[in-house]
Every structure is written in C-alpha cells, then in structure tokens.
Input
Amino acid sequence: MVSRKLIIFIVCFIQVCFADAKVWPGPEVWPPQTVSWNLNDGKVLTIIATHHTNNLDSPVNKCVKEAFTSDKPDIYVMEGFCGEREGVSPQRLQEKSKICEEENQCGENLYAAHLATINNIKFIGMELSEKAQIPLLKTHGYSRDDVIFYLLVQQLPFFYRDGDFKTHTQKFTPQTWESMCNNFLQETIAGWIEDDVTLTYQDFLQWWKKRFGAPLDMEKEFSVWERGVLYHEPSLDKDALYTQKIAYWFHKNRDDHIFKVIETAVKENTKTLVVFGSNHLRALWDKLNVAYGKPTSQKQLPSAT
Output
C-alpha cells in the first residue's frame, strides 16, 4: 500500500513542477487565442485563432476589430476562399461582407474581410483549391464523387445556421433541401473544382446510404450545429466516420498549403494578420515555431458565444 506521505509528496511535486505551465484543453481542442511574433527584420505576424462564430459581439470578433483599428495590418490572410483562384481582395467577398453590417452577424472570417475592405487593407485566401484536393485525395483511395459529397457535407451545418451560401437569405428547410443542395453541387462546387458537376441531391442520398449504412435523417444529423460539424471533424480512428477519414487528409493537405500562404505573406509584407480556426493553429504550431521561433505574445480569449 502506498503511504500517505508518499502521495502528498507526489502531489506537491506535480504542483511545483507545473505551477507556471500553460495548460490548454486536451490536444483535440485549443481555445480561441491571439499569438504574435515580432520578427528580427521588423516584421510582425499576428494570428487570431478562433472558435467559429457569427456573433459580432463575441470576444473573438471584438479582437478581430481591434486588430484592424489598432494594429493596422498590411495584409489579412483569410480562411474560406482560395487566393490562387480568386486573387487579392476579390469583389465578390467585398460585396458579400456588407451583410455583416446589414444583418449585424456574419462569420469572423467575413467580418475581417469587411473590416479590411473599409480600411483599404488587402486580403488573400489561404485555402487549397478543391480542384487541387481531388488528385491528392485519390492517392488515399477516395473518388471524385466522395470529394464532391464531402464538400456538401461540410456545408450542411452552415446551411442550417446561415441559410443559402451566396446571400444567406433563403433558409434551409425540408422544402428547400433539394434545390439548395442541387444548386450548391452544380454551381458552387462545380466552380470550385472547375469542372461540370451533374450529381444531384438524390445521388447524394444514395451515396450517404452506401457510405453510412442507413438513409440520411437531415434534421437529426445537421440541424444542430455541434452534431453537424462532427461529420467533417478529421479523424483516422478505427471508429471514425467515412467523412471524418476524408477530412483527415483534406485538412492535412489544406494545412500544408495554409502554411505556405502565411510564409509568402510574411515575406512580402511588414504586418500580417491571419484569422482562422484554432484547429489550424494546433496543426501548424510546430511549423510556426520552427519558422519564427517562440511567440512574442500569446493570449487566450474567452470562448465565442
């Protein structure tokens, strides 16, 4: 039997050794936070890592606003679009970002694009194109249809939260499921992969039944945000869902590309601001520290609400 004195000693030893350690939640979830590197050449890299929110009054979006009004970056690196496909500060996103003021809500990436636009700051996309993802994912055994329907699965929780993809005006209801999904498949995804898409919502339902072994219950699986987003959480665990396995390789390819975009932005600008989900910070943490050293500052933010 372990003596009481030994137990007390072990507890005290742990408390002393780790009293000053910064302990984040487990490896699966990093909290929203800001991290900055003041580099030797006078350049500054600032990253705002978020838990996604469309509440403009959230701590994350207040931090985003402060970054534009106080720090005044030269360039904003934006999650959610491909810079190689759409170029710098695309007009489409400048127009779309007006929804932030008109409806007083939008995702933090779009809110940052809105702030960049009104402050005459250029912004670029960090995303690897979906067209480029297809051959990379094929090397892991996934078909073109798998990738296309995975992209639709990614969008379904956003349909419930925000409405239709382009204007956010049409709501996602049983009456609009088919038309909105068909439009997303045949117009939006077709544009992303730069190829015709003839697949339909009915094809998606058949694919879902084949890959998940049961018919899709749309309301059950996607109407609640926390449940819906699980379908594109990356995992290679033995019990991982089919789309989670696709997501693992999709995100790895994506994060490798994001790091290259950040590297280029830092080389070509003095002050670089990056806003993305905290999972990207977790994935890129080691690479960032190798490239830029220990952060100059790191501050945890309250969770988005």
